[in-house]
Amino acid sequence: MADAFIVDAVRTAGGRRGGKLAGVHPVDLGAAVFDAIAERSDFDPAAIEDVVTGCVMQGGEQTMDVGRNAVLASKLPDSVPAVSIDRQCGSSQQAMQFAAQAVMSGTQDIVLASGIESMTRVPMGSTATLYMKEGMGNYKSPRLEEAYPNVMFSQFMGAEMLVKKHGFTRDDLDAFALESHQKAIAATEAGAFDNEIVPLEIETPEGAETHKTDEGIRFDATMESIQSVKLLQEGGSITAANASQICDGASAALIVSEQALKDHALTPRARIHTLKVTAGDPVIMLEEPLFATEKALERAGLNIGDIDIYEVNEAFAPVPLAWIKYLGADRDKLNVHGGAIALGHPLGASGTKLMATMLNALEQRKGKYALQTMCEGGGQANVTIIERV
């Protein structure tokens, strides 16, 4: 089987709900990262054979194949096709895996994987509730209701179940949340994100400015301020402060074959080593990254100690905490530049966003292997292992 290489990965800086990116159409967010990939890699973008775009809320401004619309809004030629996909929070990680599979199979040589999500302009859950409000249906079909009677598939409930199952306290979650902000602050101040962030020229009520810093980071975060945030459920442990932030953003990664490296004088940054996707309990839902990682490591012929850094999406604090505990992993290697609690989780854009951060962190630490995983709706999880070259 042929190898697939990552040439580059970029992202926008995250925008808070109603924040600096609220005035930017999601299609234009995607166009910005597409342009950056083409410009930074200095090759003829007409050679891109497909664009695979992850997006969760495919409604309103994010409908009509949002990935193709972003191509048309970008400097890429109209001859570049695109498809938009949804594997919930793992959508753009799956886009990356589809791109890699196309290259590994020999059917394509250059594929752009990407993700787009404006959670301000197309709110979370809006596509599911639109018709329900009009009495026109529910995502749960009669057969699905029969299989899971009276069950509401809820990530918030899954997070609380994870807390109880793995024996965490709210203090554990809040301490992890503070750590996420502290890592993100340190990374920002050290310029660790500079190579991955695509600066955006935006208009704000105060005038034009360049958006290049993740807006969700709480530079004044303390344990006291995090613990002051109210619980989302009485008797629970999850709060808005120890869960991922609603976020606007886009991201992209260029995946190519060895032949493309030669033909277009491209320099690889990493080789995609192992791909895995698994599914399990759709009710607790968020636990699947633990088991998916175990299976991915077995397939790769590696153990957790071989991995130099890991990105485990901070959808909720108990997810990475349970992952670390279950796998016996080194917490110092986890989300080394902070995670979604501080940086935001732009749903369908998070997969390639995490890859941009992980790839740069791996290079900065001169490591060899890095592993990325995240929990996904329906009890699914993707795992991608890369090797620095």
From TrEMBL:
InterPro entries: Thiolase (IPR002155), Thiolase-like (IPR016039), Thiolase_C (IPR020617), Thiolase_CS (IPR020613), Thiolase_N (IPR020616). Transmembrane segments: none annotated. One of its GO terms (molecular function) is acetyl-CoA C-acyltransferase activity. It holds the Pfam family Thiolase_C. Residues 5-259 form the Thiolase N-terminal domain. Signal peptide: none annotated. Residues 267-388 form the Thiolase C-terminal domain. It comes from the Bacteria. Keywords: Acyltransferase, Transferase. The keyword Chaperone does not apply. Gene3D superfamilies: 3.40.47.10. The active site is at residues 89, 345, 375. NCBIfam families: AcCoA-C-Actrans, PRK06504.1. Belongs to the thiolase-like superfamily. Thiolase family. This is Acetyl-CoA C-acetyltransferase. It comes from Parasphingopyxis marina.
